[in-house]
Amino acid sequence: MKEYFKMGVITSPHGIKGEVNVFPTTDDPQHFKEIKTCYFKKKGEYIPMTINSCKFFKGMVILGFEEITDRNDTEALRKTEIYVDRDNAVPLKEGEYYMADIIGLDVYEIDAEKEEDIEHFNPDNAVCIGKIKDYLDTPVHPVILFTDKEDNERMVPAIHEFVKKVDLTSGRVYMRLIKGM
Asked: What pLDDT is recorded for position 115?
């Protein structure tokens, strides 16, 4: 499982006191207000940074850091990704998963037409059809992208009607797909 989750990307400096404009990549930008430490990803390393101010303007998050007090220091930060560690990530509700944790898992197709069938299906009868490659956030719900055995990219809405079970321990995601999907 991943230790760090991307929260946003620095787009530009903001003002003269070392603040930056951040494009949020999290589904809950308000979470920036709750965290004190985030991480800049630079050359594969996660560098801790202390957030000392957080504002919102026109869909952007404006962050200030204790370690940065001058606009000149922010110029080189354009396109820097901002991460949060697992301990400070948005808490999950029961049955929820961080999308970053399912990337790379194997996709197994099951034949479960009725909701009650999912509780009784035999995982040994499921067929491995591919591997999760990525996901897309859409206005309605996330979409899982996976590559099938023929190396075709396929998309599945990340909703319970299709994603029936996520088993992080075994590295499997069980899906019920419909024709044409």
From this structure: 47
